[in-house]
């Protein structure tokens, strides 16, 4: 396993930290902290990104202000972050405090921060991203070789345009999730792995799904981290797996083999404004082949209701819930890669 350290973050907590592919088609929640980071925070790099040559670290604060950095695993980088402050024009003094890398010598860091004000409400977030190699590292830079790539913040989609989220509920955690839901006041829904379904009553559905998303297991490492992916608003071209991009249908998304470790229930939460106020009636599923899918119907008694989420796990907006319960089509093992792709909205 590999680790990433962020040395400091200035903004309004809580901070949600994501690891994304270079196109930001797929983002995985990596860490959440309610504290202002003045020293550093270290978190495990999600397994899906262990072998990719390059990825993006994205930090979102309470006000949905975003800072991102690109990291290249093939070299030992010297970061040059570009931070975009808010329209309130704070005057931060960014600093980069590199964390040590073991078991190899620490490379020379030459930070050259710059600040470019815009009119968007973005706090100053100064981060230093340093991989911490595992006992058997695959990347071994030498003390005599110093490569200094330029790392510059790039535009990110507006936080007011939420994405689709995949919640993975392992059967091994059914008892803890069920007990939490019961203690929190749910009287009908205790998680899909406990053989229960959210209420068809709109008011009760709002309460149950808000409790479900707020379960601490999604962010403390007990359950797999929530997977985030992009929902295109127009058709044309192909995604990173070579599949056609179709408006309002989320991009091809991978759950890497053995990420979960046991059978689990897979559930998609998609903002209503990302499907043009239509229903995601079919979702394509595949194992081991990102281009050959089985189209699967989602359950209308579940997606007929909406709920508005207010919290720190996912973006705050109105969602519909897409899964197959009581059909077990989305109760899947993870011995192989699993691929999902939005198929039909209607």
On the 0-100 scale, what is the average pLDDT? 78
How many strand segments? 19
Largest sheet, strands/sense/barrel: 10 strands, antiparallel
The helix-and-strand class reads mainly beta
Proportion of residues in extended strands:
25-35%
- Helical residue percent? under 10%
Tally of domains: 2
Low-pLDDT residue intervals, each spanning 5 or more residues: 75-160
* Cα end-to-end separation: 42 Å
Write down the Rg.
20 Å
Tertiary shape: globular
What kind of assembly state do the chains in view correspond to?
single chain
Number of helices: 3
Description:
- This protein has two domains: 3-132, no CATH class; 164-345, no CATH class.
- The strands form four sheets. Strands 2, 3, 5, 6, 10, 11, 13, 16, 17 and 18 form a ten-stranded antiparallel sheet that branches. Strands 12-19-14-15 form a four-stranded antiparallel sheet, with no helix packed on it. The chain has a three-stranded antiparallel sheet with strand order 4-1-9, with no helix packed on it.
- It has helices spanning 174-183, 202-213, 300-303, and strands spanning 3-6, 15-20, 26-33, 41-44, 54-60, 66-72, 82-83, 114-115, 130-132, 164-170, 227-229, 253-255, 264-271, 280-287, 294-297, 307-308, 318-322, 331-332, 338-345.
- It has three helices and 19 strands.
- It has 346 residues and is mainly beta.
- The longest helix is centred in the middle third of the chain and has 12 residues, at 202-213.
- The chain starts with a strand and ends with a strand.
- Helices cover 8% and strands 27% of the residues.
């Amino acid at each position: 396993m590999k680790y990433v350290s962020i040395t400091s973050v200035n903004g309004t907590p809580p901070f949600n930290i994501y690891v994304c592919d270079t196109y930001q088609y797929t983002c995985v929640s990596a860490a959440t902290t309610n504290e202002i980071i003045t020293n550093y925070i270290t978190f495990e790099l999600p397994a899906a990104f262990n072998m990719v040559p390059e990825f993006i670290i994205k930090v979102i604060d309470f006000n949905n202000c975003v800072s991102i950095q690109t990291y290249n695993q093939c070299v030992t980088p010297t970061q040059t972050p570009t931070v975009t402050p808010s329209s309130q024009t704070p005057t931060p003094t960014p600093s980069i405090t590199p964390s040590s890398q073991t078991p190899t010598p620490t490379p020379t860091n030459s930070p050259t921060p710059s600040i470019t004000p815009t009119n968007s409400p973005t706090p100053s977030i100064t981060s230093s991203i340093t991989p911490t190699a595992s006992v058997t590292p695959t990347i071994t830079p030498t003390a005599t070789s110093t490569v200094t790539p330029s790392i510059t913040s790039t535009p990110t989609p507006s936080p007011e345009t939420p994405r689709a989220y995949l919640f993975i509920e392992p059967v091994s955690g059914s008892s803890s999730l069920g007990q939490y839901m019961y203690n929190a006041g749910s009287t009908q829904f205790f998680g899909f792995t406990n053989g229960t379904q959210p209420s068809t009553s709109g008011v009760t559905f709002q309460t149950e799904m808000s409790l479900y998303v707020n379960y601490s297991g999604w962010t403390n490492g007990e359950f797999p981290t929530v997977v985030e992916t992009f929902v295109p608003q127009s058709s044309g071209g192909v995604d990173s797996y070579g599949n056609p991009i179709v408006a309002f249908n989320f991009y091809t998304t991978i759950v890497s083999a053995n990420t979960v470790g046991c059978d689990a229930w897979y559930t998609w939460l998609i903002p209503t404004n990302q499907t043009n106020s239509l229903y995601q009636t079919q979702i394509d599923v595949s194992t081991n082949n990102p281009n050959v899918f089985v189209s699967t119907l989602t359950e209308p008694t579940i997606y007929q209701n909406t709920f508005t989420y207010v919290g720190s796990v996912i973006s705050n907006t109105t969602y519909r819930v897409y899964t197959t319960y009581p059909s077990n089509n989305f109760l899947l093992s993870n011995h192989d890669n699993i691929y999902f792709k939005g198929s039909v909205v209607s």
